[in-house]
Amino acid sequence: MEIITSVLGGILFATGIYNLLQKQLLRIIIGTALISHGAHLLILTMGRLKTGKPPILVDGVTQYTDPLPQALILTSIVISFGVTSLLLVLAYRASKLNNSDNMDELRGTENE
Amino acid sequence: MIYAVFAPLIILLLIPIFNKWKDKIHTGWFVLPVPLLVFLYFIPFVGSDFTTKTESYSWIPSLGISLDFYLDGLSLLFVLLISGIGTLVVLYSIFYLHKSEQIGHFYIYLMMFMVSMLGVVLSDNVFVLYTFWEFTSISSFLLIGFWNHRERSRYGALKSMMITVFGGLSLLGGFILLSIITNTTSIRGMIENSHLIIESPLLPLVLVFLALGAFTKSAQFPFHIWLPDAMEAPTPVSAYLHSATMVKAGIYLIARFSPILAGEPSFFVLVSIVGIITLCWGSYMAVRQTDLKGILAFSTISQLGMIMAMLGFGTQAAIFAAVFHILNHATFKGSLFMIAGIIDHETGTRDIRKLGGLMTFMPMSATLALFGILSMSGFPLPFLNGFYSKELFFDSANALNAYTGGFLGFLQEALPYLAVFGSIFTFVYSMYFFFGTFRGQAKLEELPKKPHEAPIGMLISPIILVLGVLVIGLFPNVFVNGLLGHTATAVSGEFYEPHEIYFWHGWDYKPFLMTLVVIALGVLLTVTRKKWSSIYNVFPRHLSFNTVYDFIMDKTETVSSRITKTYMTGSLRHYMSYILVAIIAITSIVLVVTNGFDINTSYLATITIPEVLVAIMMAVAAIATIFTNSRLAAIIILGVVGYGLSILFVIYQAPDLALTQLIIETVTVALFLLCFYHLPELRKRDDTLAVKSSNTIISVGFGVLITLIAISSHSNKLFEPISSYFVETSKSLGGGANIVNVILVDMRGLDTLFEITVLGIAALAIYGMLKIRRDKEAK
Amino acid sequence: MSNLAVLPIIIPMLAGVLAIFFHKKIKAVRIYAQIMMLLNVAVVSWIGWYVLKNGTIVLETGDWQAPFGIVLVADPLAMILVITTNLIALACVFYAPSSLSAKQEEYYFYTLFFLLITGVSGAFLTGDLFNLFVFYEVLLMASYGLIVLGGEKVQLRESVKYVLLNLFSSMLFVTAVAFLYSVVGTVNMAQIAERIQEVPAEDQGIITTIAILLFFVFATKGAIFPLYYWMPKSYIVPNVVVSALFSALLTKVGIYSILRTFSIMFVQDTELTHQIFLWLAALTMIFGVIGALSTNNVKLIIVYNIIPAVGYMLLGIGLLSPSGLSGSVYYLVHDMIIKTALFLLIGALVYVTGTSDLKKMRGVIHQYPVLAWLFLLGTFVLAGIPPFSGFIGKLLILKGAAEEGEYVLVVIGLLVSLLILLSMVRIFVVGMWGEKQEIQQKRKIGKFLIPSAFLLFFSVFLGVGAEWIYPHIETIANSLLDPSIYIDSVLKE
Description:
heterotrimer, A: 65% helix, elongated, C: 77% helix
């Protein structure tokens, strides 16, 4: 199963990057969201899947799934949420002020 | 000795104070005692019983950098030139520069130069020498740019700086290699270990590095081009830096390393060929100049070439001739520069085409100039020092006999002819300088000022220098015994037994015959100079090495601009693509080269239908985001991926994650909806096929790479993860049953603290962004 | 005493948070920020002195024994960089009032500023790879806030690109950390180093691959060829004091991370990885300096000059020799200081001329001689003219390269420093020299110049007084070459 999730992670990265390479800001932001999903899935996979019960101590259970990747993902989810929100507002403001949501038109010149 | 070196530094710091009174007393008067005192400090060392002297001060010992001053015959000659000519130049400048100029700056730069030049010739530590060396370039830059409101000054300053610093850096490279080869940073230490250097395979590189440093500084062909443009500096500077001292730093360097390198065939070839070419080219080019200082600049180039060539010969006779000429050149060229400055000062022009017949107006200057040019041209009179060193030059060129046959043998045969060839033009431009300025018809109407003799203050310095020419010419052996013999000893690395110098060797003395040839042909060419003018312009002006420099400077700007603009397009897609291609390419290569890919199926989890279905659903949704053209659809599809991920989290026993992901996903979708409402509708992707395919290749490539590394990482679990510790201690030490929670709030509490900080900053930044906008709109 | 290690992170963090509560009282918040910075400089200097005297301080946060909890490792390398960071920040906090608009100061400049310092110091101090990611996010988030401060059109446009590229590399960062965790089962840097040493040669391939992936993450932040495209434009759009902070701190954190990870952790296949670094270093230097020569925008010239400096440092890291590493560390400290100083001076230049286009400037030296001379001094420091700080680092790195027989790199390094000089001295020759411009009214710029002069003083001191600094740097380099020093200090039983 880890191979399947790895491939899925790869697909999420690939589609994310494809969107990131687009001109329209919206698509680009969608791309970043896909990439973070891919990253989180890969972190989880790296802790091995289905090796035990959820990491909540219960008497009599000795096998738990690796809790550390889960903790890392939690941190990462929150952080990427923060960045994504900022990015959304930024994108909105940038396209409003520059009158364009096309990154190809937002290149800029040398002296400004 | 350290006080003597840094004395100018002390006065430099006081100059701003003296400068406050400059309306009453010319700042130069305060400065004048400094070089004089330095000169007087070093004079007592002169004498036949001279012994070397060292002084050491610790600076950065852990890097092998210390202030080791070493006074031997070579440095003694140079410090006397630096301080002696320095005194005369400061005196001269008092009359040359008017109080209304920024004379405070002038003297600060000049003193900075003096410290650095003294440092160059007295340092035994290569890195300290390099430090001072760069400061001579910097002070020269500032002095050439003294009148920086002139375009030519700025051009000349930058040019001299670029070329000499280029050489300086090359020198640094040479010093680094030398210090590695010999494991010492002391020049004397290097000389002691010279066999290490000679035997090192790096010798050619060392030689090239050192030579580039010396050739650029001493204006050797083809790096001479900065010197004529350096004439934009005030004339005292030209006389001092660009004739008597700084340009001789390269000569000094070659002389300093002569005990190691002289005798090496590669050294002989490189240094003597460059020297002799510079001699010929400089004297030839001097004849076509129209600016008095231009003539002198090319003349300096030519004379430096001659000294360089003699050092290249490497025989003791040649070395003696070289050090003798260093002294002689400083005297006659210094005086000629000062005369040129006087003419400029008193007539308002230095253009030789407008000058002429000044003999009657300026008899004193004319007399001084006459001695100067006769000495420079090597005219055979017993009271001219230039003649003696020129004759010794011819003599040493004739005496070369170290090599037989081959290129070296041929070169050895050709050198005397080239020496004569170059000297002919030396004679021609010397006469041209004198006759063009002082004889012939005066063209008073073309002169900006009515010419008259210079004030006596201005004449003192050239008078002293010309007296030097005569005294050395009359009593050469005094100088040989007291000073130059020691210099030759230091340069050749073995004791120099002084030979008596005398005027008359008989009719059959070959160097004398060479002198006669030079004079005969020189007179002929001088008399008929106008007819030959086309010869001097054989090389079109626009084809000079200046063009090369200008071309390089121009191209560095345009080419770098073109290169940079091709990839710094401002387009996010380009940037992303370049970055991703680099990552994909290099990481894949590493993966393949290290044989890093590995697949191990032994501890894979089982596959069940529901999770596969979720995975397929997520994959399809992710791909669908590319193809949808509706905002709403895109958000919903993105939501599918996010919620799918939560389901996977549930399946893989991560309840906290699933919950968080669910909440965050919901909030994100809401945010997306809010923002998307304000952003334009998705447009169809209108990329060209090339763009589409490059995007596809890059994204698929990266996806594949990440997948491969993920599989391989998962297959290579080489160690037991540390998390078993968390399971064991969660309750006992952490006091909680939910291990993930315990990790977050306790074991990795710092992560969580700063994760919250990140969220806080994001909130603040968003608030600030929106608030500033509101405030702006309110206005 | 081990709790000392957290102070360089906690003080600026609290300072930043407290500043929110009276952000509208500009005068108060200014003085408050200045006092807090002075306090922080005093504290970190004292900790630095303590570390140099008594050895590395390791703080196991929450009292969770290493390698299980997060450790903060205040070793000499981290402390020297933290001190430098704080000196720069001190100069910037005194410069900020003259350079920022009231609105910018009001809208949380000081909070974001302090949190940036928090993130940077944290990144230097942490001994945990995932925690390094978190501190990266702190400093990046603060930088996002700072780059948009003011909300101008160009700022927003460039920050979108900046945020996107950094977001991507952050995601790559966590992914790579997860990969590494899978292979070596830990995220503690000392333990990773220890475990990698035990891996047999035939299993090292995947570790090297992950290491290269991590290198690219750091290289993106560190502006190494070919990953620096995001940098030049995004560094010139914010206010100049923000640009100064960015150019001093952000890229340097990336370089520091490479220095740390590729000396104590990933040294299993240096033949491959460090050879790649050497060539990337050469290309970084060349393309960076070409960039610096390509423009007439004075701010861009300085920003592009960050790149060849990064190249120099990477060269030293790639050599992985005592000279090379001590050169890199020296250069790192030098470059942080001089880049800030130059940016602050350029801020003054742009303020008095009203333009950042070099072609429109002339004769500044006649009205503002102090500015011009400080700038020329800065130019020489940057170009590595002795006896200033740039020379010591350059000398060590080039010496290291020559010792390893990399003569081509020596030549490239020398030529690049010539071109750096050219790119900078052009500003002096074209903009400062020339005819006097009478039209403009003279402005007071003392407040711009004092912070710059303060930093230039350290640049000169680092060169002339190298004997006081260099032995420590040498110790640092040796400890980087011998990972067991770091491992033992963290994983002591």
